[in-house]
Amino acid sequence: MTGGSTLERGRQAFERQAWRAAYELLCAADEQAPLGAEDLERAGRAAYLIGRDDDSLSLCERAFRERLRQGDPEGAALDGFWLVFGLITRGDWARAGGWIGRARAVIDDGRRDCAARGYLLGPDAVQALLGGDPQRAYAGFSEQREIGRRFADHDLLALAGFGQGQALIAMGRIPEGIAVLDEVMVGVTAGETSPMVAGLVYCGVIAACMETFDPRRAKEWTVALKHWCDAQPDLVQFRGQCMVHRAQIMQIEGAWLDALEELRQASERFTGAGHPAAGDALYEQAELHRWRGDTDDAEQAYRRAATFGRDPQPGLALLRLAQGQLEAASAGVRRALEETTERVRRPRLLSAAVEIALEGKDVHAARAAADELARLAAERDVPVLQAMAAHAGGLLGLAEGDAARALAGARRAWSMWQQLDAPYEAARARVVVALACRALGDEDGPHGAGRGPAGVRAPLGRTRPGPGRGPDRRGPDPGRVRADGAGGRGAPAGGDGPDQPGDRRRAVPQREDGGPAPQQHLHQARGVLAVRGHRLGVPSRPRLSSWADLPMRPVGGMRALPDVRAGAAA
C-alpha cells in the first residue's frame, strides 16, 4: 500500500467523522512521508476528539511551524489558537498564555485584520469572565463576534456568541443570555460548526441551563448531545461532560443509582486526565451520597471535588447539618455567600442558608436569606427558582408560627416540583405541607395534598413493596426514634434499620429505573414527625403514624429534611 493511498484513506475517514481511523491512518501516512500543514491539522483534531490530548498538542505545534515555514502567518496563528484551546480545556493556563503571545506575534501582535485575530481575542475574554468581570468579557466577545461576521467564520461566530451568552448570564441579564445561547445552538445543530466547537458549545449551553435553573431546556439539549455523540462512536471528548449532564437530569428525576453510575464513569475519565470538570462530577456524586444518607462517601467526594477547584458548598454545609455540626454548617454557607456575588450562583446557597439558620433557631438570618431568594425568584419566571423560594417561605412560616403562610408556600412548592418531575424535592415540600396542616389542626388536609388544582390525583410511581409492605418488611417504630437525630434524622435507636437511609441499599428494594424504593419517604416522614410531634400537639404516636401514611410520590433519602418546627421563633 502506498503512502498516498494511506493518506487519502485518512482524509476520507476524517470527512466521515471516523476519528480513530483518521488518526491512525494519518499517523501511518506521516511515518511514510511527513504530513503537510492541513493533514497535520486533521490528525491533531482527530487525536483531540479520541482523547489523545498530548498527541493532539504535538501535532498542532507541528502544524504551526509548518504554516510559518510556508509563509502563512494567519494559518499559523489559527493553529496557535487551537493549541491554546487544547491547553485551556485541560487547565494548563500557563502554557496557554505563552502560546497566545506567540500566536499573536505572527500576525503583527494581533493587529492584522484576519479571522485568527478574532479567535485570539477569546482567551482574554474568558479570563475576564472567570475573573468576575463579565462586562469586559462581553466587550471582548462582541468584538470577536463582529470579526466572525466579517469573515463569515462559523466556528468563530459560535464561540463568540457562546461567550456573549455566558457573560450576559453572569451580568444577571439571564433571559438575554439564554436567547443568545439558543441562537448559537441553531447553527450548531444545523452542522455549521466543527466538531470541536460543537462539543464545547453543547456542553457549555447545557451547563448554563442547569446553572440558571432550567432543567427542562437542559434535558432537551442533553438528549441532542447524546445523539450527536452516538453518531460519532470514536468520540471520547465531551462524552464525560455528557455523562455529568445526564446524571444531573437523572438525579432530579429520582433515578439515583443510574446517576451514580454515570458520575462514577465520568469522574474516572476526568480524574485520570486531570480535567477540571472532574470537580463537577465529584460534587454531584457527593450530593447523591448525601441525599442517600451515605455520609462517609459524601464527605470523601466533596473533599475530592475541592481538590479539582470545585467549591463544595452548599452541599458540604448541608452534610455538616445532617451530622449535627451546626457551627461548621453555618460557617461554610456564610463564607460561600460572602464570596459569591454572581446572582445566578446565590439561590442554592440561600436555600441552604435558610435551612441551616432555622436549625440554629436564627429566624432573623433565615428571613434575610429567604427574602433575598424570593427577590431573585421574582426577577425571573423560572419554575425551579419559584419552587425553591416557595419552599423556603414555607419553612420560615412554620418557624414563625404562621402555619397558614407555611401551608400556602409549601403547597406551591410541592405543585411546582411535581410539574418538574422532581420527586425528592416534591416529597420534602409534602412534609412541610403535612406539618402545616397538622399545626392548623387539620388532620384530613394532608390526605388531599396529593391532588392537583383540579382535584385530580397526581400520578404515583411504581408500586413495588417498600418497608412495611412486604412479608419480610416492618414499618418504623416511632417509639424507637432518637430525639437527638444521631445517626441521621429518623434513624432508629440501636443502629441501622429498614427506614434509615444509610442502610437503604440493604434493607429497601430499588425501583427498576434505579430510583429510591416506593414508600421509603413515608417512613422518613414518620420519623421526622415523631421527633417533632410534641411541638405540634400531636396527641399520640399511633394517631401520628396513621395520619402520616400519606399517598406521597415514592422517593427516598429523606435524611436531609430540614429540621422545621412550628413556632421555633419562640
Structure commentary:
With 570 residues, the protein is an all-alpha fold. It folds into 2 domains: 3-212, Tetratricopeptide repeat domain (Serine Threonine Protein Phosphatase 5, Tetratricopeptide repeat); 329-335 and 344-560, no CATH class. It is 66% helix and 0% strand. It is built from 26 helices and no strands.
Total of helices: 26
Mean pLDDT: 79
The residue ranges in which pLDDT falls below 50 over 5 or more consecutive positions are: 449-570
* Structural domain count: 2
Q: What is the makeup of the main sheet? A: none
Rg? 27 Å
Going by helix content, strand content and strand pairing, the class is mainly alpha
Q: What is the string of SSEs from the N terminus onward?
A: HHHHHHHHHHHHHHHHHHHHHHHHHH
**Number of strand segments:** 0
Bin the helical content: 55-70%
Q: Strand percentage, roughly?
A: under 5%
Euclidean distance between termini CA atoms: 87 Å
Q: So what's the overall shape?
A: elongated
How is this fold's topology laid out?
Blueprint: H1 3-15, H2 19-32, H3 37-49, H4 53-69, H5 73-89, H6 93-105, H7 115-130, H8 134-150, H9 154-170, H10 174-189, H11 195-211, H12 215-230, H13 239-253, H14 256-273, H15 278-292, H16 295-307, H17 315-322, H18 326-339, H19 346-359, H20 363-378, H21 383-399, H22 403-419, H23 423-439, H24 504-507, H25 520-536, H26 541-547
